[in-house]
Structure to design on (352 residues):
């Protein structure tokens, strides 16, 4: 009898929670109609976006039967293009420009640091195809559901800072092409292009002096941070790839992409920055080590119109780093709170 009474009370409680409040001034029919309208509108919007190739999956794990992509070499091109750009170039300039390091010292540090640090984002890339789960969702396995919010929020801020840096450097390059453009307009243009495609400044020192331990460690730390920051992103771009590939194959594609792009761009940046004080035109463009875009423009200026074309192409390559960053920035937001992860087709129903 007690169990029947308990079940009856639970049933009444459930029904009362689902029954509209008759004393309320809000019309019940309008509420239900409004819910159906919003649900239907979001579903139609999701279907429309999906039709044009825009991902609407959210952060839900991708089932194994949907991980069918077998072009694993795509991982090489994605991460090569994301690192072969002007921001990686500007990171390499930090050694000679800010820490008074010579070319030889800078190149040795670059090669050693890139050889080691590129191992980590390549390792994390393996988990994308194997688990079909976003990086910040994977953090829940070790941090717990609510504990994972901490690294996820930090990742959101980190991604935002990285996007700002990319847009600033890309904007500087565009501004160097014409007197009718300034840095602000260039930044806006780069930001808009990034949406379609989907740390700080230190006081420069005079080159070149004997490298100290502090300078070596500081430059190495900047190089390492520029590579390691990709660790929270690399799994996100393999969630639709088939897990049939060996872990070694996925790792190798990603590692080669990171290393070849990073060591090349870092080396070029260090070489041009070290040579700038000896070339008045380059030094003027570098603007006291504050304008990487100006340095690149000054280097290519003697080639005339072709040089301007190359500078424009370099500037337009900036979204190749911004797009994956913005993508992970969005998925990280979804991992912060369930509300951000509701899809149009099933999230609304669970919310209601």
């Amino acid at each position: 009898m007690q169990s029947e009474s308990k079940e009856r009370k639970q049933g009444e409680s459930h029904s009362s929670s689902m029954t509209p409040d008759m004393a309320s001034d809000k019309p019940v029919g309008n509420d239900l109609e409004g819910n159906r309208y919003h649900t239907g509108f979001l579903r139609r919007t999701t279907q429309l976006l999906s039709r044009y190739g825009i991902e609407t999956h959210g952060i839900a794990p991708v089932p194994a039967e949907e991980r069918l992509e077998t072009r694993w070499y795509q991982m090489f091109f994605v991460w090569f293009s994301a690192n072969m750009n002007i921001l990686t170039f500007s990171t390499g300039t930090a050694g000679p420009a800010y820490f008074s390091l010579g070319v030889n010292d800078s190149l040795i540090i670059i090669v050693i640091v890139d050889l080691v640090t590129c191992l980590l984002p390549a390792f994390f890339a393996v988990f994308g195809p194997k688990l079909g789960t976003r990086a910040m969702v994977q953090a829940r396995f070790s941090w717990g559901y609510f504990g994972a919010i901490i690294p996820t929020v930090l990742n959101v801020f980190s991604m935002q800072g990285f996007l700002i840096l990319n847009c600033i450097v890309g904007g500087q390059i565009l501004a160097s092409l014409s007197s009718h453009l300034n840095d602000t307009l260039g930044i806006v243009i780069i930001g808009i292009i990034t949406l379609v495609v989907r740390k700080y400044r230190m006081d420069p020192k005079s080159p070149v002096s004997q490298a100290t331990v502090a300078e070596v460690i500081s430059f190495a730390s900047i190089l390492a941070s520029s590579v390691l920051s990709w660790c929270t992103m690399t799994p996100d771009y393999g969630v639709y790839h088939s897990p049939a590939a060996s872990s070694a194959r996925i790792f190798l594609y990603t590692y080669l992409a990171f290393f070849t792009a990073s060591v090349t761009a870092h080396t070029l940046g260090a070489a041009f920055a070290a040579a700038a004080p000896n070339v008045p035109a380059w030094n003027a463009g570098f603007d006291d080590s504050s304008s990487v875009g100006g340095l690149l423009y000054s280097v290519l200026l003697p080639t005339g119109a072709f040089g301007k074309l190359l500078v424009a192409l370099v500037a337009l390559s900036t979204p190749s780093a911004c797009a994956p960053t913005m993508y992970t920035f969005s998925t990280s937001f979804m991992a912060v709170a369930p509300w951000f992860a509701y899809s149009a087709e099933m999230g609304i129903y669970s919310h209601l």
